[in-house]
Specification:
three-stranded mixed beta sheet; about 270 residues; Protocatechuate 4,5-dioxygenase, Chain B; 10 helices; 12 strands
Length: about 270
């Protein structure tokens, strides 16, 4: 069985030729940059017209291995809290097959990660990353994980479980984390809040990020996936984080009073 696209034609072009042209507009300048390995990369998941340039620029600065673990927020609340897809994912550019060995090993070795397709059915956060990843890595294999809000201790344990699965895996694997920043606030307010969260990410402080988002009421939808990924990256030996691009939806929509923040970062 395979998962069919849920937001093709809405968030990005559904026609393969039009999608390739769209990616060509979003990626060319970034592709001339020198690529470097990373433990994790954090990218936004708005419509390509709004956040595609941030996602494309960020992903193009990172070496994309054949195996990618996708972590993103569960916007709909369906399925298990840490839901690992058991299906191949269809895209307009071809199928992204499930890395069955790594997905099975993660579920088998952890009490938190569960095999669950329901959480992924209508979810856009991971799907919108696939056109970029398929374009940049033709042999792409994926492990999609949809994540609900979890307590901090479970985030830490999930990160440790994820890191252990990656360490035991025989091939390189990249964590691609899908998250937008603040939602529907004036630019000045959103920017101030987002800089607080970004500061914790750049400091490689997952617990600090989790607490900052909670106490400062920052509507960062992917705080749980990012927290988990940071714990995993640290366990895998990450030493620094780099902010590659930061903007908001208002620069496209013209509305600076209700923006969604977008940031692209690499954790190396």
């Amino acid at each position: 069985m395979s998962r069919k696209p849920a937001v093709a034609g809405v968030y990005y072009e559904a026609d393969p030729d039009k999608l390739r042209k769209e990616l060509g507009r979003l990626l060319p300048a970034a592709q001339r940059k020198k690529k470097a390995p990373a433990k994790a990369v954090i990218v936004p998941h708005g419509g390509f017209i709004y956040s595609g340039e941030v996602a494309g620029t960020t992903l193009a600065r990172v070496e994309i291995p054949e195996t990618v673990i996708l972590l993103g927020p569960n916007h709909h609340g369906l399925g298990a809290p840490l839901a690992v897809s058991g299906e191949d994912w269809e895209t307009p550019l071809g199928t992204a097959p499930l890395a069955q060995d790594l997905a099975a090993a993660l579920v088998r070795s952890s009490k938190l990660f569960k095999s669950d397709n329901a959480a992924h059915r209508g979810e856009h956060a991971l799907e919108v990353q696939l056109p970029f990843l398929r374009h940049l890595q033709k042999k792409l294999r994926i492990v999609p994980v949809s994540i609900s809000r979890l307590p901090l201790p479970q985030c830490r344990q999930a990160g440790m479980d994820l890191a252990q699965a990656i360490k035991k895996y025989a091939k390189p694997a990249l964590l691609v984390v899908s998250s937008d920043m603040s939602h529907h606030e004036p630019r000045a307010v959103a920017s101030e809040k987002d800089q607080l969260a970004l500061g914790d990410i750049l400091s490689l402080d997952p617990a600090g990020l989790y607490r900052t988002v909670l106490t400062k009421r920052i509507s960062m939808c992917g705080v749980t996936p990012v927290t988990i990924a940071l714990f995993a990256a640290l366990e895998l030996g990450a030493e620094r984080a780099e902010l590659i691009r930061c903007t908001d939806s208002g620069y496209v929509s013209g509305d600076a009073e209700r923006v969604v923040g977008y940031a692209g970062l690499a954790v190396r």
